[in-house]
Amino acid sequence: MYCRRHVEHCSDGVPNGNYYVPHESDITIQNPGDAWFWHEGHVFLSGAELFTHYLTTVGRGSTFIVNMPPNTTGIVPEEFVESVRVMNTAVKESFGADVASHENISATCQDMVVVIEAPNGAVFDTVMMQEDLSHGQVILSYTLEVRDTSGTWTQVSTAHGQTVGRRLIDLLPASLQQAVGAVTAARFTCTSHMGSPGQVATLSKISLHKLSPPPIPHRTVPLQSYYSTSGKVDMLHYRATLRSTASQCPCVDERVELVGARCITRFI
């Protein structure tokens, strides 16, 4: 984002600012509950959940900082490390190589229409765009379309559609893929821009990818967290992921009771 005042006072970006400031997104791995210091038995984000956060932070041009608090021995718990390791593997498998790409495309917004073909029937479900920022952000809005095997173009209504910036990741929704079938190409069209009518924009890269998300672990998905005034965990509510009988509630330990569709764990 761009700021008018000194970067130390920047909270909201403005189109014609004097300073470029990368956006920062941070989260603690101990969520829900937003616990930044270690709590024994606290729920934490899985690799699959961290990967989703990656797509909505890094995939919108932000940095992504994950707090991993050490326990009372000064060691970061292995289960935290494993979640990040799983996310890292998913990022490398999804974006380490592309299905197809074009690089260094420069044109005025009025003339910037980029078609990228998937070779030999290769499958993709994600489009990543990166703008050359050496002269500032230029693209203010765009449309994204995909082409099916009949040659028909369909607009991706869930695309971000606004600025591109450092990096932008658009996922094709499953409903669109089911509706149009196999997609063979994507088309990016710049629809508005900063500067004069002849202002040139540059996409340093636009690429097609096939996501490789981590499997969702067979455990409870945290719903809410409650804390006592002393800061200790009073009670954690979970949404149970039940695969068979209610008695097989996959919560943290034996201090669990099943209430409806939730496992409730109480800590003293």
Structural class: mainly beta
Largest sheet: 4 strands, antiparallel
User: Order of strands across the biggest sheet?
Assistant: 5-12-7-10
Per the principal axes of the C-alpha atoms, what is the gross shape? globular
Mean pLDDT: 78
Q: Return residue spans where pLDDT drops below 50 for at least 5 consecutive residues.
A: 3-9, 220-268
As a percent range, the share of helical residues equals 10-25%
Please tell me how large the radius of gyration is. Answer: 22 Å
Following the backbone from N to C, one meets helices and strands in this order, namely EEEHEHEEEEEEHEEEEEE
Keywords, separated by commas or semicolons:
268 residues; mainly beta; 4-stranded antiparallel β-sheet; globular
Walk me through what this model shows.
With 268 residues, the chain is mainly beta. Helices cover 13% and strands 35% of the residues. The chain contains three helices and 16 strands. A four-stranded antiparallel β-sheet has the order 5-12-7-10, with no helix packed on it. A four-stranded antiparallel β-sheet has the order 6-11-8-9, with no helix packed on it. Strand 8 (139-148) and strand 9 (153-155) form a beta hairpin. Helix 1 (47-57) crosses helix 2 (78-95). The longest helix has 18 residues, at 78-95. The chain is globular, with a radius of gyration of 22 Å. Mean pLDDT is 78; it is low at 3-9 and 220-268.
What would you say about this model in short?
The protein has 268 residues and is mostly beta strands.
List the helices and strands and how they pair.
Layout: E1 2-3, E2 19-20, E3 24-28, H1 47-57, E4 63-67, H2 78-95, E5 100-108, E6 113-117, E7 126-131, E8 139-148, E9 153-155, E10 168-171, H3 174-180, E11 183-193, E12 200-209, E13 221-227, E14 233-239, E15 256-259, E16 262-266
Parallel strand pairs: 3-4
Antiparallel strand pairs: 1-2, 5-12, 6-11, 7-10, 7-12, 8-9, 8-11, 13-14, 14-16, 15-16
Helix pairs in contact: 1-2
